[in-house]
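User: My advisor asked me to double-check a structure prediction for Polar amino acid transport system substrate-binding protein before group meeting. I don't want to rely on an old file, so could you generate it fresh from this sequence?
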Amino acid sequence: MKKNKLISLAFILILMAGLFVACSQPEEELSSLEKIKENDVIRIGVFGDKPPFGYIDENGENQGYDIYLAKRITKDLLGDESKVEFVVTEAANRVEYLQSGKVDLILANFTVTPERKEAVDFANPYMKVSLGIVSPDGSVITDVEQLEGKKLIVNKGTTAEMYFTQNHPDIELIKYDQNTEAFNALKDGRGDALAHDNTLVFAWVVENEGFTTGITELGNQDYIAPAVQKGDTELLNWVNDELKKLGEENFMHKNYEATLKPVYGDTVDPESVVVEGGIVE
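Assistant: Sure, here is a fresh prediction for Polar amino acid transport system substrate-binding protein from the sequence you gave:
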């Protein structure tokens, strides 16, 4: 009898030990893509002051070329374009927002560079870009050498800042966080010229008389692409597949017609801007 009791006690202890081990096993962590689907919302970092690419209109709504793509990505991922949470970012915060998990995806005119590739993972591109320099009509800058002894306005964390820091360290840079601040500084005469993405300055001079894009292409042609947190392969692959599918319906050209052509008119060739299907020819 005593032996049977001991066997029963041992059996119970074994069962309890098994339950303890099972309960102590950590649950398998969901991937970012699974979390997005579970939460039924995707957080996308965008600009709020860079028309016509990412900006907030008079009704408080996010608009622009990047936003048009973001809404379609949201619709195809979650079934409804309204299931997006737009998180407004400055250029210098884009990497930080991904690394800290504040956003799932960046669609804020993010130019691909070797330095940025070390910090985030870029999907395939959806846009072409170079640097451009805009200046007042009375003293148009047409060559970088003309900037010697002058003040050049740039935004912090942009390719313009990186380009001039690396290639023309003697040129004085006046740096701002926000696009609005930078362009207002140019209007107010706090700098002699402003360097930014040529696609942006082309649009800005259309809306602002008295200024000219004297240098339309500077440095190499670069590409703008969505970005995800470093190592987030599942979401990265999903975005690349999405861009490929959208290319089959010429989606980015439709995006251009809806968001950029009303600003550019016929002054810009769409093929100099649009990348379709994530494929660079």
